[in-house]
Automatic annotation (TrEMBL):
Subunit structure: Homodimer.
Record domain GST N-terminal: where: 3-84
EC number: 2.5.1.18
Organism whose genome encodes this protein: Pseudolycoriella hygida
Protein name: glutathione transferase
Gene: GST1_9
GO biological process terms, semicolon-separated: glutathione metabolic process
Family affiliation: Belongs to the GST superfamily. Theta family.
Alphabetical list of CDD domains matching this protein: GST_C_Delta_Epsilon, GST_N_Delta_Epsilon
Domain of life: Eukaryota
Gene Ontology terms for molecular function: glutathione transferase activity
Reactions mediated catalytically: RX + glutathione = an S-substituted glutathione + a halide anion + H(+)
Length: 224
């Protein structure tokens, strides 16, 4: 008999929350195991054996180990969904979803991590203005994508929406989104927030930004 899928996680992590959103949408129950990356737990030897890339999320589906949130979300849909709408099998439709998943990795999350990691891990005491503006350039791109439909790949929600919202909601207080300039982006965010599954994203998205601001405040007070 197969047991629950194990998710190595911490809800602060945006990629972890994209897996939580996808699993919730599919009705999959997960066994959660904390790996606190802020305390370096991802470098423990037992964890490195299953994920030498030392990132969360990782899943263990009865011995099948997968890491990278985008790969995990696609796998969960391919294996457990009753239809393929969240990750279409049609090769053109899937290529469009893959493009947005890579946009999350290469643009959204990459720019988030280059703002957050120097603060959390390298003792930096401020985020340079250009990095915030560089993050905000992604809002132009999101606005352009959303000209083609209410979701990031047209009029059907896909795992790309879960991945992109998990990242954007984790950085929108650090790199604010101008309501007047980005109406489509704001409408999409509200659409995502209204989904029942969205609840699994709320706490972690706020907590990671609070952790960033707390760390910056601590650094400033140490300097004074
Ligand atoms: N592309 C990866 C990125 C995962 C990632 O970098 N996760 C961060 C937490 S938000 C992490 O585990 N960092 C610890 C490390 O890199 O050592 C994914 O989508 O899963």
């Amino acid at each position: 008999m197969s047991s629950k899928i194990i998710l190595y996680h911490l809800s602060l992590s945006p990629p972890v929350r994209s897996v939580l959103l996808t699993a919730k949408a599919l009705g999959i129950e997960l066994e959660l195991r904390d790996v606190n990356f802020l305390k370096g737990e991802q470098f423990e030897s037992e964890y490195l054996k299953i994920n030498p890339q030392h990132t969360i999320p990782t899943i263990d589906d009865n011995g099948v180990i997968i890491y990278d949130s985008h790969a995990i979300c696609g796998y969960l849909v391919d294996k457990y969904a009753t239809d393929d709408s969240l990750y279409p099998k049609d090769i053109v439709a899937r290529a469009h979803v893959n493009a947005r998943l890579h946009f999350d990795t290469g643009f959204l999350f990459a720019r988030l991590r280059y703002m957050f990691e120097p603060i959390f891990f390298y003792g930096e005491n401020e985020i340079p203005k250009w990095k915030i503006e560089y993050m905000q350039k992604c809002w132009d791109l999101m606005e352009a994508f959303l000209a083609n439909g209410q979701y990031v790949c047209g009029d059907t929600i896909t795992i790309a929406d879960y991945c992109c919202i998990a990242t954007i909601s984790s950085v929108d207080k650090v790199a604010p989104i101008d309501v007047a300039k980005y109406p489509k982006l704001l409408a999409w965010i509200e659409l995502m927030q209204a989904l029942p599954v969205y609840q699994v994203n709320v706490e972690g998205a706020n907590a990671i930004q609070e952790a960033l601001f707390d760390t910056l405040a601590k650094r400033k007070s140490e300097e004074a």
